[in-house]
Amino acid sequence: MSLEQVEFNIISVSFGALSQRTAELHRYLLNSTQYYNASPSLKADNFPPNETIAGLAGGLAAGHHAYNVEGTRILFVI
Length: 78
Fold this sequence. Notes:
One of its GO terms (molecular function) is ATP binding. The protein has two helices and no strands. The protein is elongated. The protein is an all-alpha fold. The chain has a domain at 14-67. The chain has helices at 14-32, 52-67.
């Protein structure tokens, strides 16, 4: 048994999830306050979708599939 790849990713991957949550916060504020009425440009259609969590999970799955070795696993140590 041997490790094929070890990656230390301390902070950067967390920003994907944070950016999605921030986009959700902006949509919440748009729907719950009148603040966004300050500009005609601030409307729901102008808020782009943000699905980075699914993208990160898809990237991990693609990397796992690329090894194509039965019994391989992804381990998260938090």
